[in-house]
Amino acid sequence: MGPMGTLGEENQTDDMKMELFTRLYVPRLTTPLSELAPDPKPELKDSTMLVEVQIILIFAYCSIILLGVIGNSLVIHVVIKFKSMRTVTNFFIANLAVADLLVNTLCLPFTLVYTLLGEWKLGPQLCHLVPYAQGLAVHVSTVTLTVIALDRHRCIVYHLESKISKRISFLIIGVTWAVSALLASPLAIFREYFLIELIPGFEIVVCSEKWPDEGQLNYGTIYSVSMLLIQYVLPLAIICYAYIRIWTKLKNHVSPAAGNDQYHQRRRKTTKMLVCVVVVFAVSWLPFHTFQLVSDIDSKVLNLKEYKLIYTVFHVIAMCSTFANPLLYGWMNNNYRTAFLTAFQCEQRLDSIHPEIPTAIKVKKNLEVKKSHCTGGPFTQPTNV
């Protein structure tokens, strides 16, 4: 189901919703609601309402937001600022950073507030916008990782230098956002913002999913399972296939020249970095997707006393992927590490960046550049990281 669908099921009646929220907010309730005294405010029972747990959650979410905003902004900054970093692969990596930055700024602060308050006090507009933005960002991330893997597979396995121009890469990025927006749209459309009176005198505002009720057809579960396949299983299967073939190709490569060997070493390091990015993404989101799927299939999971805490912990783990990528770039890729350091030092040149292209091809390209200057013909830089 959607990222913010922690409370409520899709086709509940008002009585069922009342019962669900009663279990979440009233400790060990054995007396019927109608027999409860009208004046006392129910005591919140889930662990996310404990001060100690809330302090930990505030620290966790704030750390993710801070690291994510700084790291992803830095990635976008160096790709835009330094001409040597403006390559097709780096444009895709910057697009990944934009998606993560969207989650860090638009989703996580509101999710934290919702978790701490135990009810939605941010208005009906954000009730629709926040889960949609998070779903959109996750779709963009998975599609972008898939595009990067397929592009590198084509270039490395089939010995093709990238023929994707920068203009085409921007077109691919635009299509990625358009398709992702369409796939995530049900998270904004099928949303309900309503008030629940748990007992007389005590009401809470709820933001939950609301799917059409047509007999035994459960649209919420259908959408959830479909998105699990489209957003997680299928992309990871394609990515794994591509990188396994790439890794086999690079492992079996025999370089006839030292310059060519350095080129393949750089490609191997870049591929290793991108594989780590995919692994971190897959591992971070696996518990969250699994728990969501189990909750959709078996509604009894909602009866767990610590359902909200378990959901929140898995959500925090998933959100760690939003700041991990810049750390991996700086640790595993010399070009990004140099660019980051140069950005902090306010320098304008990146002389130590090594493009991912063999010496022989660089000589050929240099000749083409000189020729193009004489003839006025165009020249397109090759892809590198």
UniProtKB/TrEMBL annotation:
**Chain ranges passing through the membrane:** 55-80, 92-117, 129-150, 170-190, 222-244, 273-289, 309-331
Against CDD domains, the record matches this protein to: 7tmA_NPY2R
- Where is it mainly found? membrane
The segment(s) forming the G-protein coupled receptors family 1 profile domain are: 71-329
Spell out the subcellular localization from the entry.
Cell membrane
Asked if the record carries the keyword Transcription regulation, the reply is no
Q: How does it sit in the membrane?
A: Multi-pass membrane protein
Q: Which GO terms describe its molecular function?
A: peptide YY receptor activity
Q: GO biological process: any one?
A: adenylate cyclase-inhibiting G protein-coupled receptor signaling pathway
Question: Does this entry carry the keyword Transmembrane helix?
Answer: yes
Keywords carried by this UniProt record: Cell membrane, Disulfide bond, G-protein coupled receptor, Glycoprotein, Lipoprotein, Membrane, Palmitate, Receptor, Transducer, Transmembrane, Transmembrane helix
Taken from the UniProt entry, a GO cellular component term is: plasma membrane
Q: Which family does it belong to?
A: Belongs to the G-protein coupled receptor 1 family.
Q: Which PANTHER family does this one have? A: NEUROPEPTIDE Y RECEPTOR, NEUROPEPTIDE Y RECEPTOR TYPE 2
- Output this protein's name: Neuropeptide Y receptor type 2
Q: Which gene encodes it?
A: NPY2R
